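Give me structure tokens for this 687-residue protein.
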Amino acid sequence: MTSSPSPQQHQDDNLWLEDIDGEKQLDWARAQNALTVQAYAQSPAFEALQQGILEVLDSDDRIPMVRKIGPRFYYNFWRDKDHTKGLWRRTTLDEYRKPQPVWETVIDLDALAAADKENWVWHGADCLEPDYRRCLISLSRGGADADVVREFDLETKQFVAGGFSLPEAKNHVGWKDIDHLYVATDFGPGSMTSSSYPRIVKEWKRGMPLASAVTVYEGAHEDMSVSAYRDNTPGFERDFVSRQIDFYESETWLRGADGKLAKIDVPDDSLAEITREWMLIEPRTDWTVGGTTFKSGSLLAAKFDDYMAGRRELTVLFEPDDTTALDSHSWTRNHLIVNVMHDVVNRLEVLTPPSNGKGAWTRESLGGAPALSTIAAGGIDEDENDDYFLTVSGFLQPTTLYIGTIGQGEPEVLKDSPAFFDASRYRVSQHFTTSKDGTRVPYFEIAAKDLLANGKNPTLQYAYGGFEISLQPSYSGSIGRAWLDKGGVYVIANIRGGGEYGPRWHQAALQENRLRTCEDFAAVSEDLFARKITSPGHLGAMGGSNGGLLMGNMLTLYPKLYGAVVSEVALLDMRRYTHLSAGASWIAEYGDPDQPDEWEFIQTFSPYENAKPGQAYPPALFTTSTRDDRVGPVHARKMHAKMVALGYDSSFYENLEGGHSAATDNKESAFMDALGYAYLWQHLEKP
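Here you go.
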């Protein structure tokens, strides 16, 4: 096999754009932004589009989803037009049941940002059980993955003076007890992995300088990250150390009181979760134990203490077939809720372990989703009771939130999301097409009931296709207003690389098989043409992050299928991706371009590499964020610069803040969404 140049050897005229915060580079980005705004974001139509989306995002009638923390309060993080950065607030369940609950503000992020003179973005709270008085609050500057951590008191509603505090880094931090934390952070040179995450985890004692923290575990430079945590469930207090080898392989140890580590002996590519006396295992590949082979994508249960003692008594709670996959699972105090997908539509089951720890688990249905909709359920407080929240949503069905108790009848409606567009005008249908290699690929289509099959309907096709992430039916007032109500057809392609059919669906498009994502997406497009829903000049393609990489490949490999392409916060330069931001963490997904034999296949799906002169590329928009420290803005910058240099119709917008979501608040989100839709409308209405 012939060798290829390494990323360091390759001539790249746009390397100068890799200085993310350089003034020259930011000036270039601002100049490109101005051109895009002038062309697509300065019309009354754009203003109306943006305002319609913002009304959805800021609506006071949205369901304020809550999380129970402690014995009494339910917490919610809320943004609206008056609180653009957000409120962390709480209420009681009795109050939450009311149409207009009374909320108590715990942290006003707008006020905090103003006082600190920082553009804080909420990253969440980790509260110490079982009394739940102290929390670790994570705050991101401008939406980056890196954040600062501060100790907070839920009774006084104040940050703790002289309490635990960590500077900005990609922190992994959690409580051990009231006076000790497990901390994985940037401890200085050599303490971070090649993926830009912590390599060392330490135990840090209150009142002591961070430099004196005691090392618990050190991973390798090539690992993705390490962390440690304590399960403080009363009666089952345990400490764990985790080494994330790559995105799909990890090792976990039980940490004894003496600091010694005992490895949990499961396959490195499996998922293992310990709750009270039970361990649940999800193998990603077939796993043979004691002469029995358990299928990839199964859900297995074992008594944790027995398993650590060497006994391998595994109970199969779920086993997939060709059309079903495990979506999720959640414990209540006495039961396990299992969510299963059949052809990307959900059904729920309640599994109950034997009361004496021996014998068979029992199961009963908790309900299925309405046709072509999504249902999901999760325990509210797995330590206390069998209460659960349940949500039902669909493309045309606003989300409804229910509350129920397992074994006590049907759940009751708690909240209904408002309708943001007239769904009676539309229909949802599911279709299946055949990809290049004969694989059956599903897709959802949302269109007007009176749609004419004339091949001229402006159509937006969306997909993700990576990291075992599934795209399921969900309600979006923004899509309804910005796309459907303007006469468009919306299509979700459930291509390989995702998790719609479990690990096998994902693994079928890894590394050397990555082009299958493109073949599947193209097959859906061609099926839309065959059904006369649309035609190439009227079909737009959109995707973000890994989906943005997909869009870059559809642009360069299948240009004749699309009238316009929108690639958001994307990977695009696959020759250099492992050297940019957190790129090295995705080698398990894409391969290592520094290895010549792997570059041979990676280069086939590197849009930046494959963009060439003299091609019939459709217009393309690349959007990104300066503060995206996961994928980073470099990919979009370089791709746009190359496309322009080659003489193609390329547009670019870089939000100077926003992180990997490319937005720090609802107003920025509405602008970024409206920009993508406006771009497509301008190119698809008059192909």
